[in-house]
Amino acid sequence: MKVMLPLIEMMKKIEGLKVDDLVADLGYFDAEDQKTALLAHDVAVVTEIKKNTLVPEHCPPEGKPECEQGHVLVFDGFDEDTYTAWFRGDDTKCSTCPLQELCNKQFGYPFEENHFFYGPMPQDSVLQEGMLKFRKQVELVFEQESHQLTSVMKHKKVPVRTTVRVEKWFILSDAFRLIERMIKHVRVIVMPVNHVANIKRQQEMQVEQLSLPLVA
After folding, report:
1. Is 137 helix (H, G, I), strand (E, B) or coil?
2. Residue 136: C-alpha distances to residues 24, 30, 108 (Å)
3. What are 169-207's pLDDT values in tens digits?
4. Mind listing the pLDDT tens digit for each residue in 19-39?
5. DSSP result, 119-135
6. Which of 5, 33, 42, 210 has the most CB atoms at less than 10 Å from its CB?
């Protein structure tokens, strides 16, 4: 079921929630959905290519572009105005390349040409690896919840999943899961250590200060 675009549209309606990057399984979207997510919603979607994915001719199986000499190019940024993924030659390879005087060492690939390989998060990049690692952690949590549901409901599949009402329920459920994980991430990364205990201590001090005049 392709629920990625409806989920993105639902998240846009949540005030204060802004998602720039999204990692998703290919079972929930296709290349056209990936294109719409970036062009219409400004959300970069990254996924892990499958073994049967058609890789561009100038790319090895990992999906990283190569120059004519077979040297892997280095990702040099994504132009959001022209939707072009830019790559440059590796200095360690270019310095000994016999074609260095004939090569401009800059290679641009339009996003429209191949959404899987020429997006803001190219294949086999550090950012993509980090996103995929995060996805595997989330999938582990979903798997644990699935086992819990199996022990109670005795099945893993929802027979009415394709109905409109159930589809909306799953989209909202995914949105709330995402918000909860974002809140947990902020609490761990942004909030000071023991901030809850510090707030309670400040509250107790304020109550004591307000109680002093009453006791006097």
Report:
1. helix
2. 10, 20, 31
3. 777 777 888 888 888 888 788 777 787 788 888 888 888
4. 888 887 776 677 788 889 999
5. SSS-TT-HHHHHHHHHH
6. 5
| CA separation for the pair 190, 184 (Å, rounded) | 10
Global confidence as pTM: 0.60
For residue 186, give the 3-state DSSP assignment.
helix
Tokens of 29: 């979207």
Assess contact for 1 and 161: CB atoms under 8 A.
yes
- Spatial CB neighbours of 56, under 8 Å, sequence gap ≥ 6: 63, 65, 114, 117
Looking up tokens 């270019």 gives: 94
Residues of the chain short of pLDDT 70, as ranges, are: 1, 27-28, 137-166, 212-216
CA 118/CA 111 separation, integer angstroms: 5
Distance CA 133, CA 215 (A): 58
Secondary structure (DSSP) of 167-182: HHHHHHHHHHHHHHHH
Of 23, 53, 14, 21, nearest to 38 by C-alpha is 21
Nearest to 113 by CA among 83, 73, 70: 83
Residue 171: closest CA among 22, 2, 21, 38: 2
